[in-house]
Input
Amino acid sequence: MSCWSVTLATLKKDIRLEWRSKDALNSMLFFSLLVVVIFAFAFDPLAEESRQIAGGLIWVAFLFAAVVALNQTWARELRNQVLDAYRVSPAPANALFLAKALGNFIFVSVLEALMVPLFVVFYNLHVLGPAWQLIPIAILGTWALVVNGTFFAAMSLRTRSREIMLPLLLFPISIPAVLGMVAGTTAVLTGDNPAHFYIVLLLTYDVVFTTACLALFETVLHAE
Amino acid sequence: MNALKFLFAAYIATWVIHAFYLGTLVRRFGRLRRELQELGKEK
Amino acid sequence: MKRLFPILAVLTAIFLAYALHLALGKATPTDAQQGDVYRIIYYHVPSAWTAFLLFSINFVASITYLIRRKPKADMVALVSAEVGVVFCTIVLVTGPIWARPVWGIWWAPGDIRLTSTLVLWLIYVSYLVLRRFSTSAQTQMLAAALAVFGALDVPLVYFSIWFFRTQHPQPVIGGGGSMDPRMLHVLLINWLAFLCFAFLVCWSRYRLELLHREVEEAHAMKSLESRAPAKTSLPLNRGPQ
Output
């Protein structure tokens, strides 16, 4: 049983379960819409500065949506002692982690894909820089949030105030990634600066922390 | 003179923070020692 | 050992007073641009260096704990993180107090040193929060893992802000450039004094932690003994010898 086949099996299971129940998906979609609307009221879309801050607004909205999604990542596993079953199985811990992270990545990407047109509509956005650069920024940025988020969600399982623990641990560590995402998106939207460095920064961040998560996940999984 | 206000504010703030932290250490020491004594008595 | 502590405390207090006297006195010239306000540097920079040193100790102790699982390593990690956060708080408080009269603003987001220090502070406060809120028996392992993550993050924080700043020039709080050798001399003396002080604070915190663990153990022993059935003729198990 290879690591990859375990990962795929777990991922398929999660997607199938989510697709059947759709409760998390529906509530998350509505939550994302609400966030965009609230931002549209809080920050005047017609102001000239909105193009400058749109990058920040979009990613803050994604960040909050991701945290809500990540918080219930492990909830399902805890409910039926699936996590304990996984611990005693010979399956590698990394496979479970990758499956969870990939599942969250797909989930959050779907949310982002739905929120972006809403932002474009509400803020009358059009891209002044090279638009194709938004794709690596979005992929790398989302992975940065999701990989650490999945790890810290597992860490928060055995803490009091579990839901607040996740953002408390995630936000400080994610600051360089958030800076990269926001500054990169703003750079592309305004066309003022090149976004190359931010893409490299996000790539470095992703490599470093994916490695760290894979190396240390087994420790976290076995924490009683 | 106005600028010196900031200088003294910085120095005082430093020692206030240190004093506050040391105060919490002293308080925790006292509480733990009392607890240990009570546990010893109950035995 | 116990008698040494008050002696060292008195010596450190004298040293700190001497360092303060040098910082405020005529031994160092008044800065041409900033006036006497620059003397905040004698508390701001030593606190920063001490905080960084303590966080480095935390990193090493956390890695040691992850590999070797020595309880002492974990205690060193906890102590260095807590005292490090105290010194880091001082850096973040004295920084804006210094910036205000010199630059007219309390905070500049692109100021790489102060912003990196803020992120460092956030990371280690989250470390302390995890330690306090975790109900797991493996809290120490989780905290050590978080410390490693935090340490990996630090260079990334620094470079991300550095590049951001090159694109959006900001005022540099705290000044750069070379320093008058007399100023450097007093700065180092203040640093040494604060290091002695930090050592004593860490020592006290370490002893507090030892006491804390002793009390926890006593609690555990007590609940073990109270649960032993009264009717048994077997001798009470007093736990691991």
